[in-house]
Amino acid sequence: MLTRRRFVKGTLACLAVPTMASTGAQLRRPIPSSGQSIPAVGLGSWITFNVGNDPVLLEACAEVIAAFADEGGGMIDSSPMYGSSQATIGYGLRKLGDPGAVFSADKVWTNASDGGAEQIETSRAQWGVKTFNLLQVHNLVSWNDHLETLFGMKEAGRLAYVGVTTSHGRRHRLMEEIMRDYPIDFVQLTYNLVDREAEDRLLPLAGEKGIAVIANRPFRRAALPRALAGKPLPDVAAELQAESWPQLLLKFIATLRARGMGAGSVILATWLAVTLSAWLSLLAGFAVVAIIVAGNVPMADMPVFFSIMLICGACAAVAAAIGVLVGSAVTNRLQASLWGAKNL
């Protein structure tokens, strides 16, 4: 008999990272600041869990949470901005009987600089957890004051991790400044097959600073799976053990680290190679000119020095060509990963 629990679990299996089903091994990621390992796929609650007091929808959401926990899911993320989503999560966790079974991530979202602590307590009560694992400043609203509150909670042992969030590509410059200047543990930002601005600066900086990344809008609110439905999976899907477009879309995000440099880093590497070659050629030219001007070179030796200059220039040109080719190859590999998504 197809129960609702089985149906929901089947739906989650379609969305889960494929290694969970294909190899029996769950894809996990360590939190850089602590080394704690958590499942790579989490559960968001924006809109979907904002169901008010509707008993049927509450029960359906509770089944989703139960299926998520049964499949080894970790992080559940919410916010005071998400209407009744926090209370819905609390309902599901109470039915689950073990609120500590999930990695609880919530946010502080208020313009009141002194209202963060009260809002956090309200959120905690709605979830029904003793403490949150992660609290984030939602969309960087009043971030200075709220970060001070969150760091104070962490120092007092009432919070494990501190983060900041943004979405839709907004306020990346401010987020970059915060990442550089504050010892945050997490950033949450929009990243998916199409929205890849974060590759240029934020993702490399997160790697450099040891900051965990939560990718929101992985499906562009279902727009990507709908646009790709019916299209054949690319060859890379078999390599990544993905059996559906939703799996592949998640795997694209989950394998970012393994894919290596982002497009921005490739451009930077190419630029450095070209710049280095230009400087080598320039320095070689200056050296020859300086020797000639100094008058220390007999005319009979001039061909030798011109040959040296030409060799230096040729080596620099080869270095530039290699840099461009490597950069182009990696960039093409990344662009091939779009699998035609540029037309979505």
Sketch the topology as an H/E string, one letter per element: HHEEHEHEHEHEHEHEHHHHHH
* Count of the separate structural domains: 2
Q: What is the C-level CATH assignment of the largest domain?
A: Alpha Beta
Low-pLDDT ranges: 1-24, 258-276, 330-344
User: Beta fraction of the residues?
Assistant: 5-15%
Report strand order across the widest sheet: 3-4-5-6-7-8
Instruction: Label the overall shape.
Output: globular
Question: What this model shows, in words?
Answer:
With 344 residues, the protein is an alpha/beta fold. The protein has 2 domains: 4-259, TIM Barrel (Alpha-Beta Barrel); 264-343. Helix content is 52%, strand content 10%. The chain has helices at 4-15, 19-22, 55-70, 85-96, 116-127, 143-155, 172-181, 202-209, 223-228, 236-239, 245-254, 256-259, 263-294, 302-336; strands at 28-30, 37-39, 75-77, 103-108, 134-137, 161-165, 186-190, 212-216. The strands form 2 sheets. The chain has a 6-stranded parallel sheet with strand order 3-4-5-6-7-8. It has a two-stranded antiparallel ribbon with strand order 1-2. Strand 7, helix 8 and strand 8 (212-216) form a beta-alpha-beta unit. The longest helix is centred in the last third of the chain and has 35 residues, at 302-336. It is globular. Mean pLDDT is 80; it is low at 1-24, 258-276 and 330-344.
Give a short summary of the structure.
52% of the residues lie in helices and 10% in strands. With 344 residues, it is α/β, with parallel strands linked by helices.
